Amino acid sequence: MVHSEDCNIIFRVRGILEFACQLDDSNEAQSTISKSFQGLRSKVSSNKLVFSVTNSPVLIWPNNSFQSSVESLTEASACGDILKYIESDNSGNKKASKKKDKFTGPTVVNMKLLFEVTEPAGNEAPSLYRVIRQQHCVRMPLPMDCVLSITNNENLANACKGLVEALSNQVSDMEEVVLRYKKGSSLLVPQPFHFQLPEPAGLTTVIYPAGVPDHQLQAVREDLHRKFDLPGDRPCLRRANAFRFPDEAYKDGYLRNPHVHLNPPNIEDAKLYLVQGVYSYHHYMQDRANDDGWGCAYRSLQTICSWFQQQGYVETAVPTHTQIQQALVDAGDKEPRFVGSRQWIGSIEVQVVLNQLLGVTSKIMFVSQGSELVTKGRELANHFQTEGTPVMIGGGVLAHTILGVAWSENSGQIRFLILDPHYTGGEELQTIIDKGWCGWKGPEFWDQNAYYNLCLPQRLKTI
C-alpha cells in the first residue's frame, strides 16, 4: 500500500461478476460454492480480462502481455500518462489530468471490468449427460469494486498487475463471506466497502453481507479493529464510515463540511482544534419548512444529529422539527401543545433531545456574559481534541454551531469557527463561504452582555 502523502492516483475498477452454482441437499454445498468461486478467480486471471478506462478510448488487456488500445500506452508507461486520454464527463467534471485543488485529494481513475466474449471456433462435438437429483440453481451478481493507490510515476504494468491481484483477492474475500452467512441454499450478496484508515493501512476494502445490519456485525468489526490497531471506542468500519470518492455526490441535497474550504485565521502561535468527521449543514428554510426567525436551534441540533449519523454511531434519520418537539414532550420537558408550535428551544432542550433520540449525553457549559467566551479556549480545544463533535451555543434569541477554535495557549487569542443556521438561501457553497455563513469569527461576534449556554455532545463508546 502506498502512503497517502506519496499517492498521486487511485485506480478504481468496478464491474459485475456473475456467480452461479447448482446446490442440492448433500453435504457438498461448501465445496460446490468454492469451486464456482475458483472459476471466477480463473476468469479474472485469464487473457479475456479487459479494463476500460472511463471517459476515454483506452482499453487494457492486463493479462495478455499487457496490450492497450492506445499504441503510445505500453507496459513501461507511467501511470500518469493515462490521464491525458481522459475526457470531461457529461456532468462537466474536469479532466482527471487537470490540477486538483487542495480538497480533492489524489486523482481517481475509474475503470470498468469487462471480459471478451468471443471464443475461437473448435472441432469438439457436444456431449450430453443426465443427472437425476433435485438441485437448486443459485445465481447472483457480485459487485466487484477494487482500488489501488499508486504513485504517478509507477509503470502502468505494475498498476494493472496490482489491480488483477486485488480482484482475485476480493473474489476470495467474497467467498469467505458467502460461506460464513450461508443458510441452506440461501446466499447473501457480498458487498465491498472502502475505508480510509491511518497509515500504513491506507485505503482498505472490507466485504460485508447485504441485508445484515451493522449491529449484527459487531464481532467482525472487533476483529478488524484489532487487526488494524484502530480505536476500540469509536466507529471506523461501519458502512457510514465508508470512504466517499470525489466524484460521488451526496443525493440528499445537503452540503457537507463547508468549513474545509476556509483558510485558517492568522493568529500567531495558534493551533486549530476542529470538528472530526463529516456533518451536514442544516439551516433556515430547508426541507420545505419555513422556520425563519424561530428554528435556529433546531437546525443546529439537526447538524449535530447528522454528525452522529454520518460517523456511524446511529442509523436514525436526522429528526424533523416535529420529531424534535415530540421528543421533548416524550421526555417530559414540554407539554403536548408544544408539538406543532413555533417556540424556540435552547441548549438544554438540545441536550434532552440528543439523549432521548440518540442516547447521547452532553456537557453544558454556562457563560454569564458573551465577553467571557474568550476565556473558554482551553475547554473548547479539549472538546474538539477528544470528542470532536459540533457544539451548539445559544444566547439571547440566537443559536449557532461551533465547529472548532483557533487558539493560542501563549497569548490566549481565539477565533471561533461558526456554522450559522440563520442562512435562508440555497445550497450554494461559494455564497455561504463568501458571505460568512460558515466562517471564522472573533470574540466580538458574541453579544458581550448576553449569557450563553453551550451544549457539548459526548461520543458514544462503541465501534
Ordered list of secondary-structure elements with their pairings:
Blueprint: E1 9-23, H1 29-44, E2 49-53, E3 59-61, E4 67-68, E5 107-115, E6 136-150, H2 156-180, E7 190-196, E8 203-209, H3 218-227, E9 271-274, H4 296-310, H5 321-330, H6 347-358, E10 362-367, H7 377-386, E11 391-395, E12 398-407, E13 414-419, H8 429-434, E14 438-441, E15 452-457
Parallel strand pairs: 1-5
Antiparallel strand pairs: 1-6, 2-3, 2-5, 3-4, 7-8, 9-12, 10-15, 11-12, 11-15, 12-13, 13-14
Helix pairs in contact: 1-2, 4-6, 5-6
Summarize the biggest pleated sheet: 7 strands, antiparallel
Helix content: 10-25%
Question: Poorly predicted ranges (pLDDT <50, ≥5 residues)?
Answer: 1-5, 90-103
Strand content: 15-25%
Highlighted features:
22% strand; seven-stranded antiparallel β-sheet; six-stranded mixed β-sheet; disordered N terminus; alpha+beta
Word description of this protein:
The protein is α+β, with helices and mostly antiparallel strands. It contains 8 helices and 15 strands. Strands 9, 10, 11, 12, 13, 14 and 15 form a 7-stranded antiparallel beta sheet that branches. A hairpin with a 6-residue loop joins strand 7 (190-196) and strand 8. Residues 1-5 and 90-103 have low confidence and may be disordered.
